[in-house]
Amino acid sequence: MNEKKMRKNRWQTVIFLLIIIVLTYLSAAITSFNFVDGLATIPKAIGWMFSNLMVTQETLDKLPTILEKLAETTFMSIAATTIAAVVSLFLGVFGSKVTKVNNFLSVFARFIASVSRNIPVVAWALVLLISFGQNSVTGFLALFVGTVGFLTRAFIESIDEASQSSVEALTATGSTYFQIVGKAVIPQCLPQMISWVLFMVETNIRNATLVGILTGTGIGYTFDMYYKMLNYNVVALVTLCIVITVIVVDLMSNYVRKVIL
Amino acid sequence: MSLLKVEGLEKSYTADKQILKNIHFEINAGELVSVIGPSGAGKSTLLRCINRMVEFNEGKIMFNNHDVGNLNKKELRNLRANIGMVFQHYNLVPRLTVIENVLHGRFGYKTTLQGLLGRYTEAEKERAFYLLEKLGIHEHAYKRCDQLSGGQQQRVGICRALIQEPKLILCDEPIASLDPNSSKVIMDLLKSISTEMGITCLVNLHQVDVAQHYSDRIIGLNKGEIVFTGTSHELYEEQINKIYGSKTEDLITA
Ligand SMILES: Nc1ncnc2c1ncn2[C@@H]1O[C@H](COP(=O)(O)OP(=O)(O)O)[C@@H](O)[C@H]1O
Ligand SMILES: [Mg+2]
Question: Which end of chain A is more exposed for a tag (fewer CB within 10 A), N or C?
Fold first, then answer.
């Protein structure tokens, strides 16, 4: 009985692998992507990067403008994330099974979460571009919408997981809804929620660059501009600055996480 | 005069299965009454009907001369403030300190804003420390609850119930997650709460010997029906088999 099952499992694995190999081969053939050729270009690409993406002395003149744009983008991401976090806090509380006010609001919150989360931020930016045009509001909204979706979902899960039992206990003492949410649910879930918000700040600083290319604002615009001017030295500097910012934010949020958890 | 009177109580969560059937019993002030029965018998449901954590379908519950089934929102809050509850898994807020968890027991008497701002009177704080001391956990007052052992956490849970100054405490399997030593401490505490403080206790248990040792009266529940009520001395092998489903019966149905 058991051996039969194991043999069946092994066959399933083999068939599964075969299907993947066939699919890979087919898709390579259809798109006429040659794996070997692809590999062969890698050394050349690296060589090109080294010769062109060098930060030179004269590009450093551009540093103040780059930093200014970078700061603008960073603060925009932080603003979009924190405002989204406040909205998500309410949606999370209303959406959770444990703290829902009524079924309608709960379904509504979950619906908002899944719609905004399952559409990538870049897609949101493209959609919002149509109605808001190329300006920083569009970028802000794109990040905001995506973040609300993600955080609402994360908050709902945190609340569901962490507070069922204490909500029951406080209800049984005759506490009011807001006493329960404010004094049991939020204190219990706050560290985890902050952790999620920090994660979204990091993600959004990265996303903001991409969104900025589309909406023509912030550091993304700077990147795009020099890229199109074929000024690869400045492009390299911009990239370096973005990488450093992301790493710094990452280190800071890891530190905050360690303190609060 | 009885503090709690249950008449013809019926409860079903779904149309196809009735959980509680025609439950009748009375409890006098200061009594410690145990409800025993196999798991799934409906013990937890019965307890939760009394403070309306679960809405019952039929019957009448009178608590302290109030009709439990017929209360508006404010009266229901007041009812719950007058009934403490102790849980198998303690149901504390793990990240908060012991003293904060104890003071949660006062929310039932406060406005939403007072509760949110944590406005407690001096008397309330003194009472909280007095209770912690009485239960022997005052040295942990400022520790987070998740740093305490199970037995200590359950004592915090009991403090939270006691600070409500309740007339009745409902305990849902208070010792089911504890080791024998802690179990004894908790049961001794509940006993002294009923005898010394005069607070009525209704305790769900699944250990028959514990129920026999501590209760003034025992209610035996099987498949949602009361199949026994009486004192510990009246609970014989035959009744225990009836409550838990006897071996011979199992053989016949199997
Ligand atoms: N919220 C609920 N929804 C549906 N069925 C429930 C719910 N709570 C309990 N039940 C069912 O009611 C029966 C009695 O449960 P419970 O009162 O917890 O029994 P006990 O505490 O004696 O183990 C069980 O069959 C259980 O599945
Ligand atoms: Mg139970």
Answer: N
Band (pLDDT 50/70/90 cuts) for residue B251 is very low
Tell me the shortest Cα–Cα distance from A93 to chain B, in angstroms: 16
Output the CA A57–ligand 2 centroid distance in Å.
74
Relative to beta strand B32-36, strand B83-86 is: unpaired
Beta-carbon-side half-sphere exposure of residue B156 (alpha carbons within 13 Å): 33
From B235's Cα to the closest Cα of chain A, the distance in A is 32
- Under an 8 A CB cutoff, do A179 and B115 touch? yes
Over 50: is that where the pLDDT of B84 sits? Answer: yes
> What is the enclosing helix (H) or strand (E) of B241?
helix B237-244
Please report, for chain A, the start and end positions of each structural domain, with discontinuous segments joined by +: 1-37, 58-161+190-260
Distance B219 CA to ligand 1 centre (A): 18
Q: Is A83 left (phi over 0), alpha (psi -120 to 50) or beta?
A: alpha
Q: Is B50 left (phi over 0), alpha (psi -120 to 50) or beta?
A: alpha
Residue B58: CB atoms within 10 A of its CB come to 16
CATH topology of domain A58-161+190-260: MetI-like fold (1.10.3720)
- Which segment of A33-37, A42-46, A172-176, B14-18 scores lowest on mean pLDDT? A33-37
Please tell me the distance from the alpha carbon of residue B163 to that of residue A140, in angstroms, as a whole number: 50
